[in-house]
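Subject: for your reference before the review

Hello V.,

The reviewers asked for a structural picture of the protein, and I figured it would be easier to keep everything in one thread rather than splitting it across files. Below is the amino acid sequence we used in the manuscript, unchanged from the supplementary table.
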Amino acid sequence: THTQEAKMNNLLTDSFEMDAKPPKERDIEMGRQNSKDKSDYGLEDFFKEVKEIEMLLDKMSNIVQKLQEANEESKSVTKASAMKAIKGRMEKDIDEVGKIARSIKVKLERMDRNNLANRKKPGCGKGTSVDRSRMSMTIALKKRLKERMNDFQV
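And here is what came back from the structure prediction:
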């Protein structure tokens, strides 16, 4: 019993050592351990692109909101000079929405190409979790762009 207690104490001490090396990440689907320096299957760059597109979509939403507010404001304006100023702001915002939408479209097209190219990497083939994640995220971003454009047209 004394040796069993000593073994238990060693196990507990070893598990709480501060200078112990961190365990390797475990990729359950791949059935093996991956070290930190191993490839991230292209996801780090992919998620940077996703974040850029999401920021542009948010910017687009804010501009659409401003346009809706300006439209409401224009309904109560009686002076021609005030109406002209509102129209000028709205035209500038409409142009900005168009530029953002074109930029997002180009980024999404590039993302599609990168998704197909990424399938050639080991562990990233069609149907893998990496591929499914990339494809579903890209589809979701396309859907959000379409929704923003529909909001813009209303």
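For the response letter, the relevant points are probably these. The radius of gyration is 26 Å. DSSP finds four helices and two strands in the chain.

Happy to draft the paragraph if you're swamped.

O.
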